[in-house]
Amino acid sequence: MGVEIAVSGLTKRFGSQLIWDDVTLTLPAGEISVLLGPSGTGKSVFLKTLVGLIRPERGSIVIEGQDLVQLRGDDLYEVRKLFGVLFQDGALFGSMSLFDNVAFPLREHTRKGEKEIGDIVREKMELVGLAGAEGKLPGEISGGMRKRAGLARALVLDPQILLIDEPDSGLDPVRTSYINQLFVDLNAQIDATFLIVTHDINTARTVPDNIGLLYHRHLAMFGPREMLLSSEEPVVRQFLNAQTIGPIGMSEEKDADELAAESGQELPPLPPIPLQLPTSDGTPRRAEREAGEWCRSNGVTPPPGSFASTTAGIVGVDQGADA
């Protein structure tokens, strides 16, 4: 089962450049969270800080009662065993077969025999849909397959926390949909805590239980998916709905003249909140919430048409929080 990650007051600089300041959030155990933000806002730096590869100037990262920021040596190494990481490009060794790439963490960090390693590798490769491809080299397969091989490697030590950096990078929309479905199915099966960094708005709107948005060197908002998708906060509304009206410009922030030119313009309506992506076989995930639950509990009227599925003939909340 996944574990909770409590981040408090996290601040990171590179020299005089502030990356982000006073980031505070809690990643709930066993849930899928997504971290968004314009390019250059330090999302990948945040992932590396969570796993202890980069040290912040201030703040804490508490996992199972231990502050990872304060740990050193063997203590840090032990906490890192809780993590699996899928890097943006898969980070596979080009001269190794997929089998050896996936087996690498087991050979480096355990004393398991080759037969047991082989069984685990084949199990994880089947889990990500790569059964039969064990002998191929990374250069012989597609980008989507390399992502899945990297995911299999991230899973071989049975992590309780899975960090995923830009899984849609370099993938077409169809492959992105497949890998999103894989994340949802995996979460149901292994119940780990997922944090996905992405730019893909469809992923953010349909996959996670929670969404966070980094903007202008701080965490603009973090919370349940429905909270952010119904938010009127300008930067959250603009980014999650891919709108041009709002504080975000081509160089992250719009200048005063651009904002003044937008003054008085009517904002486009919020689009309907979609149903969350279900598992392939319809098995509920432990963290799954009923559609519209957050809106009803907080007295928020979602945009018209929210939580409706015409393809499955399922209608949840369709015109308001009490529908």
From TrEMBL:
Residues 283-293 have a biased composition (Basic and acidic residues). The keyword ATP-binding applies. It holds the Pfam family ABC_tran. Gene3D superfamilies: P-loop containing nucleotide triphosphate hydrolases. Residues 254-323 are annotated as: Disordered. InterPro entries: AAA+_ATPase, ABC_transporter-like_ATP-bd, ABC_transporter-like_CS, P-loop_NTPase. The keyword Transport applies. GO terms for molecular function: ATP binding. Residues 5-241 form the ABC transporter domain. Keywords: ATP-binding, Nucleotide-binding, Transport. This is ABC transporter ATP-binding protein. It comes from Phycicoccus sonneratiae.
